[in-house]
Specification:
The protein is an alpha+beta fold and 238 residues long. The protein has a single domain, classed as Glutaredoxin (3-Layer(aba) Sandwich). The chain is 25% helix and 24% strand. It has 5 helices and 13 strands. The strands form 3 sheets. Strands 1-2-13-12-5-6-7-3-4 form a 9-stranded mixed β-sheet. The protein has a two-stranded antiparallel ribbon with strand order 8-11. Strands 9-10 form a two-stranded antiparallel ribbon. Helix 3 links the parallel strand 6 and strand 7.
Length: 238
């Protein structure tokens, strides 16, 4: 399992790969989705039902049904998970101003779609923004058009996004007017620069089956071939 570490000059975001994998263990141990407990990778194997997958993934066994959501897609129309029932869903939380992990993940997902071939017609790729302040439906639409215009982009009010992220055990944090300057000292700001802040967030991709059950979680850096194989296996199971 790969844990991504920031390099000098990179954005100030967190991936918490090990933490997210432990949360998967909590899901299948019967606890509520989104429980905010973190552990080291060595503790993951002890979680009931967690099955490590090659190259940065985990199977959820038994599968866990996720709650429905009510957000807005890039066309400005309401959308819920129920609207996608009967299709597999590959879901990723990110934001359009992300300089590295988010565009890299979406590029990987476009490759996953290509590898699936005609089977991709039964899969919805869903990008959920965690930055509703900047990511309007129009902004999300322009962003996804750089990767695949058929990808679904979702946004909503901060409370709805926070609630949904918690259900999946995802974490994100938007700066609230305080940052550390180059000298390491705290500096207060009256307002967040609307075009100049980073969002700290976890970065797994979640695979949900046709009946709305969470089946697999793939972490940042998982090869597209691994994700495509996992999706194909679930599709073949019906």
């Amino acid at each position: 399992m790969k844990i991504v570490r920031l390099k000098p000059g990179r954005s100030r975001w967190w991936t918490f790969t090990a933490s997210s994998l432990f949360l998967v263990g909590l899901f299948v141990a019967g606890l509520r989705l989104g429980t905010g407990v973190f552990a080291s990778p060595g503790q993951v194997g002890a979680a009931a039902g967690a099955e490590n997958q090659p190259s940065g993934g985990a199977a959820v066994n038994p599968p866990v049904q996720v709650r429905d959501f009510a957000l807005t897609n890039q066309a400005g129309a309401p959308m819920s998970l129920r609207d996608l029932r009967g299709r597999m869903v590959v879901l990723f939380f990110g934001y359009t101003h992300c300089p590295d992990v988010c565009p890299a993940t979406l590029a990987d997902l476009t490759q996953v779609k290509k590898l699936l071939g005609t089977a991709a017609d039964r899969v919805s790729f869903v990008f959920v923004t965690i930055d509703s302040q900047r990511d309007t439906p129009a902004v999300v639409k322009d962003f996804l058009n750089q990767f695949d215009p058929d990808f679904i982009g979702l946004t909503g009010d901060p409370a709805a996004l926070s609630s949904m992220a918690a259900d999946y055990g995802a974490y994100f944090s938007i700066p609230a007017g305080q940052h550390k300057g180059d000298s390491g000292k705290d500096h207060q700001e009256e307002d967040i620069d609307a075009n100049n802040y980073f969002v700290q967030h976890t970065s797994p991709s979640y695979v949900i089956d046709q009946q709305g059950f969470l089946r697999r979680v793939y972490f940042n850096g998982t090869p597209a071939e691994v994700i495509a194989d996992g999706v194909r296996q679930i599709l073949q199971q019906g």
